[in-house]
Amino acid sequence: MALLPILSYPDPRLRTIAEPVKDVNDEIRVLIDDMFETMYDAQGIGLAATQVDRHIQLIVMDLSEDKNEPMVFINPKVTPLIEDKKPYEEGCLSVPDVYDKVERPTKVRIEALDADGQKIDKEVEGLLAVCIQHEMDHLNGVIFVDYLSRLKQTRARDKVRKVIKARGKQPQPVKR
Length: 176
Ligand code: K1U
Ligand code: ZN
Hints:
This protein is of the alpha+beta class. About 30% of the residues lie in helices and about 25% in strands. The protein contains 3 helices and 7 strands.
């Protein structure tokens, strides 16, 4: 398995529209494993292939406390089931240390394929509904800060720049 670099806002590659996966094969399953390793390492609950510069319709997620309930969504289609929207405090591994409320429909239907190419069709609420909509946005080149004011977007850019600079100053592991 491998840790993949995560693109940071405002990298223009985050605006790429993802293509459908044609064949759920071993190459895709290797990418899925690498995305899980990357997501767990970054302490995220979700990751879209766009964020690791792979522009295909693939999302991984694990909302469990013990990080032992991995979910994979390939070629996902997400349909809101109710008009009612509620705000939820979101974060994003591509916008480190920035959190803000976004309003989204609270109940959605997810149709997708899993890592074995089997069909998924389920109605979800709560954090899973929030997270799948956030990840779907990534596949469509949308980032959660796009829903915020211009001022907050500018602050988010500045914050990300500072976080990345600070990370660069951290001691790096010695390569042997
Ligand atoms: O897409 C991503 O960058 C992953 C993102 C998913 C997400 C979290 C919260 C609301 C919507 C979408 C994260 O995992 S951000 C990481 C994080 O700090 C976090 C983890 C658990 C709950 C809330 C935030
Ligand atoms: Zn995100």
